[in-house]
Amino acid sequence: MEVLLSRVYIGARTRLRAAVAAALLAPLAACSAPSSPPASGDAKASDEGPVTVSVTPKGQRAPAGRPVSVTASGGSLTSVKVTDAEGRALRGRISADGAAWTSDRNAAPGTAYKVTAATRTRGGTAGTARASFATAEADKVNKVDWRPGAGTTVGVAQPISFVFDNPVKNRAAVEKRLKVSTSNGTEGSWGWMRDWSGKDRVDWRPRSCWKPGTRVTLNAELNGTDSGADGGWFVRDYTTNFTVGTRQVVEVDLDNHRLTLTRDGKAVRRIPVSGGTPGGDKRSWRGTTVLMAKEGTINMNSETVGLGDAYNKMVDYSMRLTWSGTYAHAAPWNAQYLGKANRSSGCIGMSDANAAWLYGQVRPGDPFEIKGRDTKGTVALPNGFGEWNLSWTEWRQKSALH
Fold this sequence. Notes:
The protein is mainly beta and 402 residues long. The protein folds into three domains: 42-134, Immunoglobulin-like; 144-245, Immunoglobulin-like; 248-392, L,D-transpeptidase catalytic domain-like. Helix content is 12%, strand content 38%. It contains four helices and 26 strands. The strands form six sheets. It has a five-stranded antiparallel β-sheet, with no helix packed on it. Strands 20-19-18-26-21 form a five-stranded mixed β-sheet, with no helix packed on it. A four-stranded antiparallel β-sheet has the order 5-4-8-9, with no helix packed on it. A hairpin with a 6-residue loop joins strand 23 and strand 24 (327-330). The termini are far apart.
């Protein structure tokens, strides 16, 4: 009996020691997972499911100019939000299998981003993962000057025009970020050129002149786009919107020394004019020019346009047609030639009264269609807005995407 009790006691004591050991080992096993936070750019779902989220770019000086990528393993992404320090979001989309999200746009230089990803395990448990990264500052920045201004009403020949501070080598990448939308589905195309100033320029013109009343919006989503060698980065977006006004065309017949303003196809007024003097550099340009600006009273100096015999006049009602100095304006000193002969230095001159009237009628974007036998040729593409002197096929060939 004594032996039997001893065995029972020893067995119970052994089982007790095993139970205590198991209890001590259980929490030790639970604490054996890594306790350090995930590396920058990686995050783990807040639930205890096996969803792991990875974000690129990573770090605090990541290269800009690449899309943001968020991937999930062990489950799927249900939503992703990527915002900069000012709360602006990068749009993107999740793949059909829920494994990845990619931004529509590139990460911009010199920008800190926060990433919040909602996840779901294979078993259906929801979670949230967070990460952050920042991109390196741009070594060089490219800026833009554009026309027309926001909220303006323009003529039916007005193009959208961008002139860049620095060269643009990556023209296709830049052109893809320039989005034009219209109220009536107007067909058009971008075309690249070297501006009169010597800088790179891209214009958008419709296939044919705008329909009156068309509302136009340009969204140039350039932030984060690399111009290419020597061009630098774009670090902001640009937007403009405008409305197309009445269909007005200024027809200039240099052979008959007459200017006619037509509106909606009907002649409104005919004005006697004098164009450029035949036989030399003072001849006028022919073809379609576009009214660039109404500049009022300005000083015109022949030395600025390379003409030999000097003139230096204050000129009223000046309407700029080209960068090289072609205007329509008041020319009272040429009164004896108005309607009779071409005796100007290349501009379209008229009386004070007629110039004042025309100045009050036209708007930037109105086409001036100039014809005449003795001219110095068709106005060049970048000399103002000369794109209307190209066929539609010729113009589309100037796009970086065709």
